[in-house]
Request: fold
Amino acid sequence: MADGIRIGQLYPAKQPIGIGKPVQPRTQHTETDEGVLFQTLLKAGELKFSRHAEMRMQQRGISLKPEQLSKIVTAVEAAEAKGAKDSLILYRDIAMIVNVPSKTVVTAIDGGSAEGNVFTQIDSAVVIT
Reply:
């Protein structure tokens, strides 16, 4: 029993790390590829909606046009610049709780439902006209 068990004796690696992996050749990007990559990067910065927020918007008949979404994204970016984490975004008669770092709308409330509500666990509010 003088021999101790060494790592690798019981379960030796089948192949050393990094050996046997095929090398992927670099491909040339065409203009269309770059356009697709650019669109993908743009979408990464867009506002996302949680499943809960999507359900609430459908239930409450809330729909947003692209120009309205653009204003909301601008408001979220302003909140992010101030260091906000969870923000209440008030746009016309719609209230949204947005997780600022992930740019995700957590929930949305229409004007009729928002009246009398207390919004908790937010650190900022942005009012859009």
Notes: The beta strands are 48-49, 86-91, 94-99, 104-110, 124-128. The longest helix spans residues 66-81. The chain has a mean pLDDT of 79.
